[in-house]
Amino acid sequence: MLLPYYYVNQSNYSLAIEDDAQAEFFLLKCVSLAEKTNDRKGADAYLSLAKLSLKQNKNQQGLVYAKKIITLLGADKDPLIKDPYLLQSYAIQAKAFLALSNYEEALLNCNKAENQSILFQQQYLFNESKLHIGELRRENLETGIMALYSQYKYSGKKQYLEQALIYANRAKSNVLNERLTSSKLLFSNANKDAVSLRIKLIFRLNECKKEEGDSEVIILRNKLDSLNQVLGLQGQTPFVLKDLKKFQSSLKEESICIEYMVVDTLIFRFDIQRNKIEWSTELLKNPAVIFDFYDILRTPGSTIQEFVNASSKLPVLLPFDLLENSNIQEINVIPDGVLNYVVFDVIPSSIKSGGWNNIHYLAEDYLFSYQFSMQSFGSQLERSAVNYLGLAPDYDKLKKWANLKNSTETLEQAQGYFGGKSYFGIEATKKNLQQFGPNADILHLYTHGVSNDSSYDASHIILQDGELHVDEILALPLKSRLCLLTACEVGLGKEYKGEGITSVAWAFKAAGAENVIQSIWKLNEQSSYQLMNYFFTHLAKGTNSSESLIKAKRQYLASSDISDRLKHPYYWAGIMHYGEGAVFTQKTQDWWKFGLVGVFLFLISFILVKYKKKDSNF
Question: Strand, coil or helix: what is 397?
């Protein structure tokens, strides 16, 4: 019967033009028919009615409509039923109970919705619908955090704080975290043939054309599901309390991890140290102040006064009292929402009159690194060997793009330190990246990049033989300990509430790269070349990659050879390090071989001299 669909479509139109009364009329018509025919479209209508009731502050009525979904789907008689409509029903009930200040019932329904979302998160192969499930999950967890915060304020019990932090971590980077866990399991799995077959299936699924029909996709997905079971990749458990405790104990005494969760106009901040966790809130009255600050940073012509004014309007994002009265040296930031556009290390700690040289930034006092989630810390097994791979296309042959004049020199410098292989010009292709990238410890791409917020797979980088999109990057089985993306805006892309920004950098991290260096605005080639020069000098000395980038920035700011104008944050602050960092050993020469040859020649000379002396005595 098509009438229920007609009524739902009419209600959607009415909602779009803000005619709530007309929308309610059509929705009630729909549920009246759906109850007689047991049509699933009735669940859709009840869901819209429940949302409309909450919008009108009719929370009790909203509960009634949300519970009707459970009855319609038969979940009141069979608690094992799993259904996306059930997820949303429980989430709506949690919201209604929160509005009624019934925090226990709110949390109970929040957990029910979370259990549903975990199942669907694990069940579906990565695609747009999985990101949609992530958005529903995020919305539900936001409700849970609000309820937990109210409980925590009232009781002060640590259990509410810890559960809220677990929710905050689950509410972001769901696809990335799942892929990191899979990557770690895969590369430690003894069944190498099965791992190899899985990689081939993913490539095949990724290349599957629409004209081949749904049957081909279904067959490939079924094969992949079966193989995932063999490899132990099914039924991965979500982030829980024991994972939080393990993460907390792994922190160094002089470090702090700050995780953010933005819910409407509230910023929840969790300050995590080895021996304690603190929870605070900050009001974000106007998110535009974040973007204003970001625009000042990425605009080379902005003035110092504009920078000062924009930074002064930022909300309090860091625990400055704690930082000033402790021995903290390292700050790991897990941003969220609009805070992904904040470069924390460029926040000024003091400003003197004069030029850019007279601004003291937090980067000069603390070692900053960024993370996508707590799971993204130390996500891969370490390997002792260093295998460098660099790719730099020749853009003179690609008429649409400006040539990057420092690419050859930069890659040759890195290769001189670490050995390995670089592909230039016509050899800097997707094929070579796909063939040799998975075994590279350091993967370095010196390319043009394009950010696009139309869909998760729209952002891409430009290689010699074409565009490499996010979905293609996700199919790379990387083991890289460091991925350097010397390209513009590779940290930008489409943002999903349950995932974050699905950028090129996000894709390389999700593909298995342990650490990623990315940019969040268009780079100046000369200043980024200078920064990378400093960076590789520190990295080759055995300095952690995260620390190497901060030292490179400090060296850039301290250099008397660089003019005051080029100390503007645009020229140095846009390159960011995601991950704890990795340490590499510089390529060593075989000096011991030369030594042996020298000793051998010395002994030969010594014997000959002795022989000549004996001969002369006769």
Answer: coil
How would you classify residue 77: left for phi > 0, otherwise alpha for psi between -120 and 50, otherwise beta?
alpha
Print burial letters for 380-419: b (CB count within 10 Å at least 16), e (below 16). Answer: beeeeebbbbbbbbbbeebeeeeebebbbebbebbbebbe
Query: Among the listed ranges 207-211, 226-230, 339-343, which one has the minimum average pLDDT value?
Result: 207-211
Dump pLDDT digits (tens) for 437-467.
Answer: 988 999 999 998 888 877 777 888 889 988 8
From the CA atom positions of the chain, what is the Rg in Å? Answer: 28
Determine contact, residues 518/578, Cβ cutoff 8 Å. Answer: yes
Contact 257, 372 (CB under 8 A): no
Q: Cα angle vertex 259, ends 255, 260, to 5°?
A: 145
Distance of alpha carbon 358 from alpha carbon 211, whole angstroms:
61
CA-nearest of 422, 427, 402 to 412 is: 422
Alpha-carbon distances, residue 116 vs 167, 261, 512 (angstroms)? 15, 22, 27
From the list 441, 430, 512, the residue with the least C-alpha distance to 463 is 430
Which pLDDT does position 145 carry in this prediction?
Answer: 97
Residue 140, token pair as written in the block = 């539900």
Q: How many residues does the chain have?
A: 618
CA distance 459 to 464: 17
What is the 8-class DSSP label of residue 23? H
Provide the CB-side half-sphere exposure for 255 (13 A, CA).
17
The arithmetic mean of pLDDT across residues 315-343, rounded, is 92
Please count the CA atoms within 13 angstroms of the CA of 472 that sit on its side-chain side. 16
Crossing angle of helices 41-55 and 20-37, rounded to 10°: 150
Q: Which two tokens stand for residue 214?
A: 């749904």
Q: Which helix (H) or strand (E) segment is 468 a member of?
A: strand 466-469
* Positive or negative torsion for Cα 6, 9, 14, 17: negative
DSSP code, position 566: G
DSSP per-residue codes, 82-94: --HHHHHHHHHHH
Nearest-angstrom CA–CA distance, 475 and 507: 9
Q: Smallest Cα–Cα separation from 455: which of 481, 493, 423, 489? A: 493
Q: What is the pTM of this model?
A: 0.83
Tell me which residue of 117, 100, 123, 98 sits closest to 108, measured CA to CA.
98
Phi, psi for residue 555 in degrees, rounded to 5: -65, -40
CB 424 within 8 A of CB 593: no
Cα–Cα distance for residue pair 172/613, rounded to 1 Å: 82
CA distances from 117 to 90, 109, 144, 162, 472 (A): 11, 12, 14, 20, 26
> Where do the H-state alpha helices sit in 357-458?
407-418, 430-436
